[in-house]
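Entry 14. Structure prediction run on the chain below.
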Amino acid sequence: MGNYPLSKYHFRVEWGGAQISFSEVGGLSMEIAVVEFREGSSPDQSAIKMPGLRKFTNIILKRGVKKADNDFFNWINSVRQNTVERRDIVISLLNEAHEPVAVWKVHNAWPCKYEVGAFNAASNDVLMETLELAHEGFILT
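Output returned:
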């Protein structure tokens, strides 16, 4: 078997020991701030650049709305009650044998936005819900 680029359509999301089905996962992004610094006595007329703090974008999870499944809403609603339930999340990209070939481990995630898609009487599309998660970083294994 050749060393082909990985397909993005076969993945799994887990938290709290449970596998949760999603149609889309996005937002796995990290940026390192650039800190510019120049000493007053430096003969150079430009600043040096150093790495600063890391910044992680929020993760976006999308899935079809299911009857009597209010887990997303209940989780974000608990934040409003002055408690934050943080969860570690594992996002795995799978091969043809359903084995992980790349695994992103997200640390201390908590919901910061919940959205239900638009209702449309002329559409055949599935009603989608979106959960946006703030987190404290991830690693790739």
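The longest strand covers residues 100-116.
Filed with the rest of this week's runs.
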